[in-house]
Each structure stands twice: as C-alpha cells, then as structure tokens.
Amino acid sequence: MGIPPLDEVLSAVRVVAIPTRTRFRGITVREAAIFAAPEGASEFSPFTEYGDAEASAWLAAALDFGWQPQPKAHRERIEVNATVPAVTPAEVPGILARFPGCRTAKVKVAERGQSLADDIARVRAVRAAMGPAARVRVDANTGWSVAEAVTALAALAEFGLDYAEQPCVSVGELAEVRTRLAAAGVPVRIAADESVRKAADPLAVARAGAADLIIVKAQPLGGVARALEIVAEAGLPVVVSSALDTSVGIAMGTQLAAALPDGMLAGACGLGTVALLDGDVTRASLVPEEGSIPVGRPPLDPDLLDRYAAAPERIAWWRERVARCHALLTDPRER
Ligand SMILES: O=C(O)CCC(=O)c1ccccc1C(=O)O
Ligand SMILES: [Mg+2]
C-alpha cells in the first residue's frame, strides 16, 4: 500500500475535540484528527496517552481508509450493541435510551475504584431494563486477576451473559479463566479485545485457544484490509468494535463489518458509540436506529468541524503526532 506524502496528509487534517455525554474510560472530551481525503473522510484517533509505535498502526488505518479503495460491502446495515459505561444502576435506563432498538448491551465492569457489588447492580439493571430475550455482555478491559474474574463471572452468570470481554491482561490468564469457568460449569464465553488490538502478535490468542471469539477494531489493527487478514487467520467468530470514534471512524468499522463473510459475525457490533458523544463532524451521524447503523461514509460538515475545532496547541500536538507516526510508517531507519 502506498502511503501519501506527509505534506499532503497534513494539508488534509482537521483536529476536533468533542465532549462526551457521559464519562467513558475517564474521558470527557474526545480528540480526533479528521482527514478530508481523496476517497472520503478518514479519522486518526488513538487515545492521547498512546505512544507513537502503537499510534502508527492507527495512522496506517486512517491513510488506508482515506487514500485507498475499500473492500466490497456485503450488507447495508450493521446491528450494534448498546455500550453501557461504568454508571450507577439509576443511570442505566438513560444510557439505554440512546440506543433505540438495540437487543444487545455491552456493560463495562471491573472499573477502577468500584466493587463487584457495583458490577452486579449495573448488570442487573441492564437485564431488568432489556428483558430476558436480550443479549448482555460485559467488558472488564483487563481489570481482573484470574481469581477475581472467576468469582465475578460466576456471580454475573445469573443474569445470562453472552460473553465476557478481556477479563484479564494476558493470553495465558484468558486461557486459565476459560478453563476454570468450564470446569465450574459456568457458561460464559471469553472474548479477546486488548489481546488482539494491543498485542505484538494479534493471532497468539487464537493459536492458544484462549478465547471463544475475538473483538476486531479497524484503527488499532492498521486498517480494514489488515483486520480482514487477521480475521481470516484467526478462524474465530468476530465482533467488530470501535474506540469512541466520531462517525468517520465508525464508518471505517462499518466497512470492516460489511466486508466480513456471512457467518463470521458473532452478533451485534460495538459500533453504536457515537450515541455517547455530544457532537460529531457530520450531520449524518452513524447513531443507532432500530438497533443498527448504516454502512457508508458520511460527508464532513464544515460548520461542525469549525464548532468542535480543538485549541491551537492541541492542533499543533496532533499535527506533530501525525508527522512522527508518518515517519515510523515510511522511514525504515525509524523501525
Ligand atoms: O464495544 C463497544 O460496545 C464500544 C467500544 C468500547 O467498548 C471501547 C471504546 C473505547 C475504548 C475501548 C473500548 C473497548 O471495547 O474496550
Ligand atoms: Mg473491550
């Protein structure tokens, strides 16, 4: 894949700072670099604490989506899950209301500073609000030890869980949780997220048999085409997810989900998160309607790019980050 020259990339970039409607991952303002690129709008939005080596995969994805033709879409809409941050039970109905028609919810658990009792109360509130037929998932974002994961998932299993996403940090721990839950007769599947998107080897988890399914995200995996290769090699069912992107980054996710062969998708995708933002860069936001979002590339809105423009020092910071990551992708001496 040819990488466009840095001056062309920098002349296409805008930087936005969009408030979130609810604190998520400790974030209350989401910053993103948005490109008005030849193939359509593209997004580069690694979290600000990520180093350049990790962020450069996100830039490869943004340049691929903005400058290269994308694979054929096999579907027009993508079913999405409601994403429930680590809120109190009283806040659950308000969060779910932003995801109209969604029959699957993914609930954040194991948040730092909270207890298992908080997680149980939150999952109970989600199950109560959605009814017995809904699918309920949890995402611990590596927050548990093996022992904590087994205890927590045995307790949460009473609410009927579709799967538990990344209960622990390492591939070895995921495998152990999976084995211990099976031995204890606890019917909870394990999904790998960080073990795919942050690992030097995204296929290690599949090779080790450490998960029942994998979460794939286009930006951290280096783009739609690379993510499709990983899916094909992993041979496990897939849920496509995002990283709290604007509708432009979500569009990259819909492109990936729509390109997957039938039968690979393990249910609703985690692509409904524009509903958690208090703004966007397009008037055609990819927010859930009747439980799904459309596949496609929404046009950038110049007024919204102005309204959410980041402060000058943040724009400079992002432009320098783009330049450093671009160098990592193009200059062999940087490897
Ligand atoms: O999968 C979803 O429902 C939404 C995306 C999500 O949870 C997320 C968003 C930002 C950073 C990390 C994660 C994650 O899946 O761990
Ligand atoms: Mg996750």
From TrEMBL:
Entries under Pfam families matching the protein: Enolase_like_N, MR_MLE_C
Cofactor requirement: a divalent metal cation
Chain residues that bind Mg(2+): D139, E165, D193
Pathway: Quinol/quinone metabolism; 1,4-dihydroxy-2-naphthoate biosynthesis; 1,4-dihydroxy-2-naphthoate from chorismate: step 4/7; Quinol/quinone metabolism; menaquinone biosynthesis
Residue ranges occupied by any Mandelate racemase/muconate lactonizing enzyme C-terminal domain in the UniProt entry: 89-184
Listed EC numbers: 4.2.1.113
Membership in a protein family: Belongs to the mandelate racemase/muconate lactonizing enzyme family. MenC type 1 subfamily.
Protein name per Swiss-Prot or TrEMBL: o-succinylbenzoate synthase
Organism per entry: Leucobacter chromiireducens subsp. chromiireducens
Gene name, Swiss-Prot/TrEMBL: menC
